[in-house]
């Protein structure tokens, strides 16, 4: 693949073909059931074939389609177990891999952006991509001063592809909506579109990564690679080794899972408190577990890809910690008042405070105990409770509103919890919140998020 497929008609046709293929397989499946095969066997076969087609197309298109697939992949833990199996492998593939851009195209891009003598900046440059993501691919190299580096090169036409894909995906959102109970797909796509311009700007990404790298330079637990150079649509950073989190999820032992989960929870809360920025792309491909021969308590978490961040100068908004603290204390009236003040409950909506508290308490269980074991079963139970029309939680949830200010924070938190559940990590979530979440340990005064 020499370039992103940029012709609108070609890209549209690939996405538009998805529902036709799915419908065709459903018809074929009906014939097989009439022919005597069990419904369970036919359903499993259809789910596998649908997953293969859906994520093959998303992966090949790269751009917004693959970005959307990566975002969906962290919600895999919410799928019912009888459905999760066929989709799990296909979703995970999108977290670290995509068809590569040929070496000639990479060389041309580097010559255009770094100059014709770009090779002089490197002692060596590996033409084989080390990783491929939604808008660019990464090559391993050795910088002129001897440091091992990662060279991220943006795909030609990435911006056009992102916008085109996300526009088309909004029209076929109904296909993937049923995969994740309780998740409204269209607002997610809208929010991704709003972040496209920022993610395409490698200068903004470099600045966000510099802030994190400087803040965590001496940290014993979190590692952020330093920025070495940046020019136009090329970003050079120090190389980050370690075990990809996707491998920890698929094959890691309990010590690896628990340590990775603990540090992931810490970074979720400590990052905004210490940098004023929220790393907003928490899929497993962006994290590495750095192990040594010592005990697990000394292992570190490497963090990459700061192309999407939320700017939170005061850290996470104070009302989040305040409302969680009040909910755990049983202050139903106070919680409802704060939700109303922040825009989660519109002025015309009347709700019972105790019903709101009953809705929230199961969701915030990780904040209530010293150690919480994140599991797929727990996440599935929460998703099913909110998505079941017969459930009081379903009816109450439909009356709640998500203010734009909180949209990205909400997605990042849910995504991180999804990864924790994929890890099956037992983590001291509460202690990290007590240390880093404003208002959770004790009442504070501060500006409200208007």
UniProtKB/TrEMBL annotation:
GO terms for molecular function: ATP binding; kinase activity. Residues 93-337 form the ABC1 atypical kinase-like domain. It comes from the Bacteria. Keywords: ATP-binding, Kinase, Nucleotide-binding, Transferase, Ubiquinone. The keyword NADP does not apply. InterPro entries: ABC1_dom, ADCK3_dom, Atypical_kinase_ADCK, Kinase-like_dom_sf. Pfam families: ABC1 (PF03109). Belongs to the protein kinase superfamily. ADCK protein kinase family. This is Putative unusual protein kinase regulating ubiquinone biosynthesis (AarF/ABC1/UbiB family).
């Amino acid at each position: 693949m020499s370039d992103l497929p940029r012709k609108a008609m070609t890209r549209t046709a690939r996405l538009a073909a998805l529902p036709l293929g799915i419908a065709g397989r459903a018809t074929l499946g009906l014939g097989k059931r009439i022919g005597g095969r069990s419904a369970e066997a036919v359903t499993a076969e259809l789910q596998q074939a649908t997953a293969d087609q859906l994520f093959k197309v998303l992966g090949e298109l790269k751009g917004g389609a693959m970005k959307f697939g990566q975002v969906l992949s962290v919600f895999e833990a919410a799928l019912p177990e009888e459905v999760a199996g066929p989709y799990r492998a296909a979703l995970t593939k999108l977290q670290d891999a995509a068809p590569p851009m040929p070496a000639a195209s990479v060389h041309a891009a580097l010559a255009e952006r770094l100059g014709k003598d770009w090779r002089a900046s490197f002692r060596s440059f590996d033409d084989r991509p080390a990783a491929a993501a939604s808008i660019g691919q990464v090559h391993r190299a050795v910088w002129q001063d001897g440091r091992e580096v990662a060279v991220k090169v943006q795909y030609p036409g990435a911006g056009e592809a992102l916008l085109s894909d996300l526009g088309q995906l909004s029209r076929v959102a109904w296909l993937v909506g049923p995969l994740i109970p309780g998740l409204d797909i269209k607002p997610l796509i809208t929010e991704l579109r709003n972040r496209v311009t920022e993610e395409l700007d490698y200068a903004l990404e470099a600045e966000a990564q510099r802030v994190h790298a400087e803040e965590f330079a001496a940290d014993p637990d979190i590692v952020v690679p330093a920025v070495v150079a940046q020019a136009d649509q090329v970003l050079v950073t120090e190389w980050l080794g370690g075990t990809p989190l996707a491998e920890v999820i698929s094959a890691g032992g309990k010590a690896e899972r628990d340590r990775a989960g603990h540090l992931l929870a810490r970074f979720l809360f400590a990052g905004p408190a210490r940098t004023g920025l929220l790393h907003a792309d928490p899929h497993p491909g962006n994290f590495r577990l750095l192990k040594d021969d010592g005990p697990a308590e000394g292992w570190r978490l490497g963090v990459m890809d700061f192309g999407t961040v939320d700017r939170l100068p005061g850290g996470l908004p104070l009302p989040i910690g305040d409302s969680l603290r009040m909910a755990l204390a049983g202050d139903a009236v106070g919680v409802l008042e704060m939700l109303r003040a922040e825009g989660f409950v519109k002025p015309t909506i009347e709700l019972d405070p105790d019903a709101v508290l009953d809705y929230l308490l199961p969701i915030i269980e990780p904040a209530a105990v010293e150690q919480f074991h994140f599991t797929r079963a727990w996440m599935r139970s929460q998703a099913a409770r909110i998505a079941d029309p017969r459930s009081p939680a379903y009816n109450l949830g439909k009356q709640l509103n998500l203010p734009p200010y909180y949209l990205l924070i909400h997605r990042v938190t849910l995504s991180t919890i999804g990864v924790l559940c994929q890890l099956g990590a037992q983590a001291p979530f509460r202690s990290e919140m007590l240390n880093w979440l404003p208002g959770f340990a004790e009442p504070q005064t501060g500006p409200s998020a208007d």
